[in-house]
Each structure stands twice: as structure tokens, then as C-alpha cells.
């Protein structure tokens, strides 16, 4: 009976129209005194559990501001679900634009109880936020049992935030072009050699002019360069986890392979538009490599294109890692908040982590593979092609840590020099490596590659 009551409560709240304003919804709660500890609700969760049958802050009113930069209605529904259980807690959703968010937030976190108690985290800004964050009051071992990426967020034995879902790359292919080339599902390639042969069949050249690219990576060269080299057994960073390595064997082989796909195989061209995503949507390219947000892009801009997905090919049957991933993070807690706010924030985080329905909503919204192990086989989620493509080997993807933007920025410049200016691969990557390492020397950064399960282990 208790589970039915809780499910009904959450379902009613999560069914709120997305058109409603999250801030207005939160403000409907006036912080009434809660004198009912036993809510008649069942404990949620597996290893990280949440028992709703208790008072928060002794039932006395307490207000939390929650800063974020996206999806205020969706996150507001979560706050509403919590406030339905604990009516003495008011959670105000404060939606700030991304531009300026990372300048304003560190300053606001210094204001104690007048600043945000909760705030959404992007791991690339961990270096700015960690000094203001309180660790979760949850056993890290319990979190690692429930969330397969939690171990990569351990800092001195504590976890300050983790992932509710992860995003990575996959191959998207045009089903109509696939069929026209005489290909079937049996032809979905597992290796890069197989992939290149399939791409040749999908390439169409008329009167010496390419009219259909078998594979288009224009605009994504740098993304492939920061993921595929892991397949060769190397890493982006040296053993010190602070020095970038752009001239490893894996990097050089990946760059040469990509260049050969265009120059030797003729399955694409750097002159075939600058945006592979747009080319795919316009029916000009048969295959592209994109990350999970491409699902939303296609639904919004090119809903009539019928496409499928498959996992990125590998150089060997069991690579060190298929690719890198990036996680979408759970909220941080401001350590400078008042004791009452900290108690409520810690309680909310436990509610958040134990609530599978909330995490499912988030992962489906962002096309993320769920970090919560209990959701990985959810049939509804696996209908999403971005999620389904990586479901088989998701634990064989690596998080390099909150990578500073200098890596992607300088790899993109290197990619342009290699493809458009025909510069020497090794010299170009060495130049990019030198620039990146000068930048890294001036910031407090440590890669998380050595927290990957296979790191340092001989295959």
C-alpha cells in the first residue's frame, strides 16, 4: 500500500504540464509546518535508499534556492515531488542562462544561506566549484553499488556529485540509403575495417563529383580524435594524469585512419560541407558519428529522416575502451548554507538518488544512458536509438575527467590543419599538445582516467 501511495504521489506531480513555470510552482509552497513524520510511504531505492517517513528540519519551514541553467520545468517537477512529501520545505528554482552562469555561481555560493543551497554541476567546471561543495552524506560504497560511474567521482574517499546519466558517441545511419545499397542489419560493422567497406558501398560519385558521402565526420574530427585512440590501449593523459599526450601511437593511428577514409577510400570529403549533422539531416551523408543529443536534433530539425544507430566500431574485439563519455551531473550542495538548509539539501539529494522515476525522466529528456544500474534494461529507455546503441558495452567507455576546454579547442585546430592544410600529422599534434600542456600547467586539473576499471591492467 505504501508503494502505491508514493507512486501515485510522484505520478501526479510529474504529470504537471511542462508549460507551467517551475518557479511559480515552487512558490506555491509557503513553508507550512509539517507535524506528520509517518507519511504512509514506502522506502525507495536499492542500496542508496530514501525513507520519506520522517520530518526534515524538525518539520519547521526552510527554504532552498536551486540554481540551474536548463530545463527549469523538469527540475521543478522534481522539487514539487519532494515538497509534496515535505510541505515545510520550499525549493525555489532559479534558472540562469549558461552565459554568465559560471561567473555568477561561485560568487553566489559565498553568500551562505542567502545564496543557492543546491546548484546544478557541469563537470568541466568542477575546478571552480569544489571548494564550495559539501560532500554527500551517503556511503560512497552504496552509491557505487547503484551507479556504475560513481567511482570515477571519488575525491579523497568522498563524493560531491555523480552522474545520473552518461552520453557518448555512436554511428547514425540513413536506413533508406542503407537499403538502397543492398545492406541489411547483418552488415552492421563491428570493426573499422568492416566499417570502411560498408561506407564504400554507401558512397555515390557522379561525373567525378560526390553526391552522397558514405561517412561524413566534418565538424567531428576532433571528437573522434579524443575518443577512438582509447581503442588502441593508450590514454589522453600521461601517468601523472596532468600532462596531455596527443602524439601517442593511438592518436597517430586514429588521425591517419580518418584521413585515409577520405583520401584513400574516398568515402567522404572535407569539401562536402562543414557540418556532418546538417548533411545527414538533408539526406546527403549516409553515416555520421554523433553524441546522444543528436537524437533531439534530428527530431526537431529532420523528423522525416528514418535512421538507425550502432555502436562505434573498434580496432579489436575487446578494446581498452570503445570511446570516452561525459556525464550529466547530480546537484551540488553549498557547504556555506545554514545547518537547516544543509539538512534539507542532503535529504533531497538522497531522495533524488533513490528515485528511479526521476532519473528515468531526466535520461529520456537528455537521451542519456542511465547511470543507475536498475534502469539499464528499461525497455522504454532502450527505444531511444542514442541509448540503445551503447547499451551492450557501456562499462567499456571511459571518462577522462572534467576535461578543460583547451583540449577540444586545440584538437579542433589540429584537425583543420591536418584535413584542410594537409600538414604533417605528428608535427601538428605535437604543436597542439605543447599548447594544451602550457594551458594545463596554469590550472588545477587531474584526469580521472586512472579510475577506469581497466586502467593499468594488462588484457
Automatic annotation (TrEMBL):
Domain of life: Bacteria
InterPro entries: SBP
Pfam family for this entry, one: SBP_bac_8
Gene Ontology cellular-component terms listed: ATP-binding cassette (ABC) transporter complex, substrate-binding subunit-containing
GO biological process: maltodextrin transmembrane transport; maltose transport
Gene3D superfamilies in alphabetical order: Periplasmic binding protein-like II
Keywords recorded for this protein, A-Z: Signal, Transport
GO molecular function, one term: maltose binding
UniProt signal peptide: 1-22
Similarity section: Belongs to the bacterial solute-binding protein 1 family.
Name of the protein: Extracellular solute-binding protein
Organism: Candidatus Eisenbergiella merdigallinarum
Amino acid at each position: 500500500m505504501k508503494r502505491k501511495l508514493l507512486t501515485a504521489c510522484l505520478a501526479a506531480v510529474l504529470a504537471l504540464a511542462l508549460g507551467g513555470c517551475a518557479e511559480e510552482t515552487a512558490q506555491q509552497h509557503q513553508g507550512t509546518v509539517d507535524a506528520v513524520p509517518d507519511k504512509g510511504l514506502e522506502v525507495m531505492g536499492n542500496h542508496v535508499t530514501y525513507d520519506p517517513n520522517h520530518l526534515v528540519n524538525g518539520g519547521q519551514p526552510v527554504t532552498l534556492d536551486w540554481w540551474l541553467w536548463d530545463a527549469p520545468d523538469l527540475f521543478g517537477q522534481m522539487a514539487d515531488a519532494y515538497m509534496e512529501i515535505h510541505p515545510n520545505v520550499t525549493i525555489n528554482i532559479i534558472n540562469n542562462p549558461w552565459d554568465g552562469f559560471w561567473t555568477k555561481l561561485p560568487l553566489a555560493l559565498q553568500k551562505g544561506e542567502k545564496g543557492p543551497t543546491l546548484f546544478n554541476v557541469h563537470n568541466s567546471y568542477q575546478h571552480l566549484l569544489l571548494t564550495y561543495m559539501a560532500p554527500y552524506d551517503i556511503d560512497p560504497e552504496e552509491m557505487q553499488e547503484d551507479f556504475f560511474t560513481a567511482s570515477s567521482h571519488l575525491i579523497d574517499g568522498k563524493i560531491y556529485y555523480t552522474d545520473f546519466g552518461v552520453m557518448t558517441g555512436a554511428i547514425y545511419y540513413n536506413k533508406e540509403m542503407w537499403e538502397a545499397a543492398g545492406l541489411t542489419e547483418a552488415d552492421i560493422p563491428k570493426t573499422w575495417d568492416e566499417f570502411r567497406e560498408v561506407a564504400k558501398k554507401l558512397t555515390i560519385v557522379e561525373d567525378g563529383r560526390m553526391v552522397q558521402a558514405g561517412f561524413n565526420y566534418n565538424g567531428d574530427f576532433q571528437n573522434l580524435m579524443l575518443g577512438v585512440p582509447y581503442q588502441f590501449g593508450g590514454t589522453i593523459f600521461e601517468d601523472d594524469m596532468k600532462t596531455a599526450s596527443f602524439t601517442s601511437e593511438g592518436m597517430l593511428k586514429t588521425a591517419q585512419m580518418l584521413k585515409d577514409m577520405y583520401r584513400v577510400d574516398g568515402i567522404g570529403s572535407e569539401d562536402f560541407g562543414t557540418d556532418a549533422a546538417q548533411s545527414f539531416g538533408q539526406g546527403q551523408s549516409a553515416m555520421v558519428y554523433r553524441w546522444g543529443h543528436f537524437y533531439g536534433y534530428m527530431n526537431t530539425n529532420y523528423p522525416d529522416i528514418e535512421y538507425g544507430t550502432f555502436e562505434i566500431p573498434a580496432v579489436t574485439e575487446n578494446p581498452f575502451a570503445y570511446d570516452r563519455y561525459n556525464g550529466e551531473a547530480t546537484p551540488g550542495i553549498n557547504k556555506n548554507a545554514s545547518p537547516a538548509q544543509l539538512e534539507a539539501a542532503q535529504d533531497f539529494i538522497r531522495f533524488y538518488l533513490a528515485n528511479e522515476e526521476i532519473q528515468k525522466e531526466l535520461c529520456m529528456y537528455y537521451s542519456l544512458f542511465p547511470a543507475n544500474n536498475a534502469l539499464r534494461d528499461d525497455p522504454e529507455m532502450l527505444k531511444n536509438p542514442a541509448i540503445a546503441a551503447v547499451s551492450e558495452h557501456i562499462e567499456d567507455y571511459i571518462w577522462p575527467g572534467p576535461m578543460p576546454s583547451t583540449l577540444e579547442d586545440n584538437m579542433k585546430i589540429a584537425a583543420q590543419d591536418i584535413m584542410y592544410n594537409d600538414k604533417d600529422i605528428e608535427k601538428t599534434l605535437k604543436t597542439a599538445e605543447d599548447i594544451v600542456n602550457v594551458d594545463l600547467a596554469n590550472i588545477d586539473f587531474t584526469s580521472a582516467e586512472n579510475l577506469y576499471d581497466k586502467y593499468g591492467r594488462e588484457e
